[in-house]
């Protein structure tokens, strides 16, 4: 059980590095990565959304020390990520396929994060069974 818990912590820590890094970059540099010129309002909105992404990554990291005890937080964060992924998927219908980086983000949002949530639930349930907690 401890090995599985440790592996989950490592994988979540590594995967959460992506939203932290991308979010921090977006907060600091705005849309410089894309090279697009946008309005001041669009730039502000981009940085706001980057801040949310940064926050989501940090909150996933906050579950790491006692990951088996943070099922509600993990599920809430997963829900937020999946909703964002569904919004990104909807954008495909209106604007077409984006870059491979965005498609990779969609995969993380709609596949990787829910799988990690299921894994976290498994670890939490095994912990509860072993230690008699609900």
UniProtKB/TrEMBL annotation:
Signal peptide: none annotated. InterPro entries: DUF4345. Keywords: Membrane, Transmembrane, Transmembrane helix. The chain crosses the membrane at residues 12-33, 45-64, 76-94, 100-119. This is DUF4345 domain-containing protein.
